[in-house]
Design goal:
Elements lengths: L4 E6 L4 H10 L5 E7 L19 E2 L10 E4 L3 H14 L2 E4 L6 H10 L4 E4 L5 H16 L4 E8 L9 H13 L4 H4 E2 L14 E7 L5 E8 L4 E8 L3 H14 L5 E3 L1 H10 L2
Parallel strand pairs: 1-2, 1-4, 2-3, 4-5, 5-6, 6-12, 7-9, 8-9
Antiparallel strand pairs: 7-10, 10-11
Helix pairs in contact: 1-7, 4-5
Length: about 270
């Protein structure tokens, strides 16, 4: 797209929402037309930035025409954003996770009417890592695969969602599923490694933003594919790139891989 893209951020007062607003203020490709938040948010009605005429709002019906919405809210907020996008034919970038099967089904069906892109991780580097791992896992199908991830000490889930995503990509490339091949823990006399298994190792500590390494291990050689995040703003940057790309797409279900494939083809 060459014209200015009109964008709304849903979940605008959250950590990701704030990061998006900060980046959008400096990105001349976009015009920010709405910053949507929960009705009980302390920021409700306050200016989005010092001197800005745009204020935080919860009223979808009052927003100006918009080309694309980025959602990092929650299940309830996402449902509201989806309803607005469907009603007005607006593209929707979904970074919200943790919603139930009913909303997942709604999102899947809405892709027949609007452009919709979903991702659990908007790092463009991670998206490229997943593409490389898919190719390597298929080409080196007999090699052992271990996925090692490291995050800050406050992270509560393990393995990380990104590590699981990488495992799923590799398993699919080998014609199987992560459920069938994953090994999440090893302790004591575990016996020899089972051929075809996908092992996970987890590190937690300090302020590590996120590190993921896929180790493909053969006889006499090893291939390591790694990504290290040092700044959380990479996720907001990736979502903004996805929004700019998605605003020019026809209705359909997309992932970051579709955007990267178009970029790599030179179109």
């Amino acid at each position: 797209m060459g014209e200015i893209v009109r964008i709304a951020v849903n979940g605008a007062t959250g950590r990701m929402g704030r990061a998006l607003l900060e980046l959008l203020r400096r990105d001349r490709r976009f015009a920010l037309v709405a910053a949507i938040t929960a009705p009980d948010a302390p920021e409700m009605g306050a200016p989005v930035a010092h001197g800005s005429q745009l204020c935080f709002s919860h009223d979808w019906s009052a927003i100006q025409p918009v080309d694309v919405v980025i959602d990092f809210s929650g299940p309830e907020g996402l449902a509201s954003a989806l309803a607005h996008c469907e009603a007005h034919g607006v593209a929707l970038v979904v970074g919200t996770t943790g919603y139930g099967e009913d909303l997942a089904a709604r999102l899947a069906s809405s892709a027949a009417r609007i452009p919709l892109l979903r991702s659990a991780n908007f790092s463009l580097g991670v998206a490229v890592l997943a593409r490389l791992l898919r190719e390597a896992s298929a080409a080196l199908a007999e090699w052992d695969l271990e996925i090692v991830e490291a995050h800050h000490g406050r992270k509560e889930d393990a393995p990380s969602g990104t590590a699981l995503l990488l495992g799923e990509v590799a398993a699919a490339a080998r014609g199987t599923t992560l459920e069938a091949r994953a090994v999440y823990a090893r302790e004591g006399r575990t016996g020899p490694r089972q051929p075809g298994s996908i092992g996970f190792a987890v590190v937690r500590g300090g302020d590590i933003v996120g590190e993921h390494t896929a180790m493909l291990i053969g006889q006499g050689e090893r291939l390591e594919l790694s990504h290290r995040a040092t700044d959380r703003s990479i996720f907001a940057r990736g979502a903004i790139e996805a929004a700019y790309w998605l605003a020019g797409q026809p209705a359909g279900a997309y992932g970051l891989d579709a955007m990267l494939a178009e970029r790599s083809s030179g179109r």
